[in-house]
Amino acid sequence: MEFTPVDLERALVKNAAIWTKDMLFKSPLDRGITPVSLSIYQGHIPSHQAGPRAHSEHPKVPAMAIKTATGMYRRLDAVITIYFLIVTWDDNPNRRGYIDTHNVINRVIYGLYENVMIDQSFVLTDDPVHFELIDDPAADYHPYYYGRIEAKFGVMTPGPGWDHIGFHTDTGPYNDTGADTLSIVAPEPPPT
To answer: Cα 55 from chain centroid?
Structure first.
């Protein structure tokens, strides 16, 4: 089991797929005739501009990308900020497509708080989980509706005395007495 931010992203993709599995949305491929499920990606939503346009069985929208935004390591642990970036599509002129994005946001937030620990390795911190429906008064995104969730997770920091799978080996450099102390135990210096 690994404890890196990339492992956290991977675990959240797996969990978000479970939390949103019964949700169906309109797609620009057939203008909403056939409802489709939410595509969930680690990192970024694949871009057609990055290479030749390939036919995909999954439409580009609706989609969610889960990626590490920022992080901060301390000696014993780390706090990783994850962004969930959401886009849905609805061409109805009543412009209520934002509700689809809001429903995805609610499902993910409920899933985070119902589970708290992700993949038995990553703990949702006590920091607030923020969300945002993205609107820009200078640009009209219709029929696309965007949203974002920001959540923070606790992650272990690897260090002396920990093996490659996360178990304490009871020995560390410089006769360190353990991961819970800042003291380094060393022999007494010779008298002068």
So the answer is: 27
Q: Is the pLDDT of residue 55 over 50?
A: yes
Closest-CA residue to 13 (of 77, 63, 88): 63
Mean pLDDT score of the chain: 83
- Assign domain 5-157 one CATH number from 3.40.50.2000, 3.40.630.30, 3.30.2000.10, 1.20.1090.10: 3.30.2000.10
Closest CA to 74 of 177, 159, 168: 159
pTM reported for the whole predicted model: 0.78
Residue 91 has pLDDT above 80, yes or no: yes
DSSP 153: E
Contacts of 180 (CB under 8 A, 6+ apart): 76
User: Domain locations in the chain?
Assistant: 5-157, 159-192
